[in-house]
User: Fold this.
Amino acid sequence: MSEKNKKVHKTKSFQRRQDKYGYLFMLPWIVGFVVFTMIPFVMTVYLSFTEVKQDIRGFNIKFTGIYNYRQAFFVNTDFTPALVSFLGMIIPYTVVIVIMAFILAMLLNTIVKGKSVFRTIYFLPVVVLSGPVMYQLMNLNPEVEGQVNELYYTFLIRMIYSYSPIAAGAMVSLFDNLSIILWYTGIPIVLFINGLQKINPSLYEAARIDSATNWQILWKITMPIIRPTALIVTVFTIVQLGAMDTINPVLVMIKERTANTSGGFGYAATISWIYSLIVLAIIGAAFLLFRERKIKETHKYW
Amino acid sequence: MAKRIGKAVTYFLLICIGYIYLEPIFQMVSKSLMSASDVIDPSIEWLSKSPTLNNFKVAAKVLKMPKSLINSICFSAGLAILQTTVAAMTGYALSRFKFRLKNFWFVMILLAFIIPTALLMIPRLIIFITVQQSTGVQLIGTPVPQVLMAILGQGVNGTILILIFWNFFNLIPYSLDEAAMIDGAGPFQIFFHIAVKLSFATVLIVFLFAFVWNWNETYQTSTFLGGTMELLPMKLSVFDSQFETASSSGIGAGGTFKINEAYKMAATLISIVPLLLLYACVQKQFIQGIENTGITGE
Assistant:
């Protein structure tokens, strides 16, 4: 009996020790998270329903209900188009980046010579990519407008344009900025290579013995195994693209409103909240897209 | 034979795509060497007829070059050191202790990465302005807000830094800790003398990433710091307008300066050369750093 008690006591003190030191090491991060992330998060939601005015004594916060939301969607004419062009940027860009990164990782995984040289080149942009640099590069070619027109005259783009001008615009911007978009694949490529190298080669061998073609191997073995990595890459890409104000018109709007400290914080909170909900929804959609699909019962017990 | 052709195609594709990657940098170099007449000459695509280094001189002056470079290095390195320290501690806690609600905090760390910074900027600004008004200490326009956020683990991409450390600490066998514990070492001693000393390479990797990310971060920097401290990327972001004022007050000897791509590209090149040099020295560490995050699963 006493021994049992002793044991219980021991595990309790063990747990207390673990708690104590675990939280001691975590303390700075937790404090920072609460003060600079959790409280601001809740505050933004609240502020989005208010009007914030700054005077000498501090901030004057007045509750206005859904006034700001109505302003954003129905009164101000610049928010909805910015949101649409943001969607027209982030969705195709993310798709292209993830697919290109996967293809490049596959290619890099097959070669032996010069692998590190290529990897060094592909990873280089991660180090130099910043808003101002991107801005200068994207505004580099003054004749770009001519190129846009040229592209607009190609048959395919015109065909798409007749269905949906937004889709055509997104495609044109995609081709215009291909280099810069590819610059985002640096980290995804390394992640994909890492994921590919963890696939057991005997799986491929077994498939080959069963006379699977390369195409079948790609779809039935590589893709399912790489799916979790693809999810991480997709989320990472969405976050990185969203944080770049050069290509994100909504971010520019929020920035302008934030810079104006005398007022407009409430409205800025509203648009940043709507914007964040949309970003989180896109990330959620990525989760759904890459989730583990349940194997049907019939397949399970064959 | 088919295999050889496949290999040739692979290399061909890789080289072509590699060229697309580097094209902006090639263009930067070629444009920055052009004189004003070359820029408007449509027959010149890449090679300047009369290469000149004058663009760099002018651009460096507008960028307030030696001062802004030193400022940028100090600023980024300072924040990076703080971020690295906190990331190491947090990663260590997650790797070594089984404290309650650990999984909850882990999810929160991942969540902190996903929440858009734009969402948090306004309340953060309000918090700092309120503190500034109630204490009378100037915060906005100084590095203090960013230093505070770095110390408290909310710096740029802090989550990734934590994951790199977490994954590395997981690789250190627990028996080393036990041996030290038997010798009477406390958790902090184990952290410093075993975990940190063994992970010198990881510390370097995390520091480099934090350095580069802080260097390239302009959204928070422009909001909290503004133009009060001359930083290279910030100077680049206002290069166009600064050039106008600088040229009207006369930077060069006489002659009027009109802004053109050559100056812009020279400025851009100047602002990324420090990073390129850094990358040239330690590119292996950078790539390993991402490989070691372990977020692709074991």
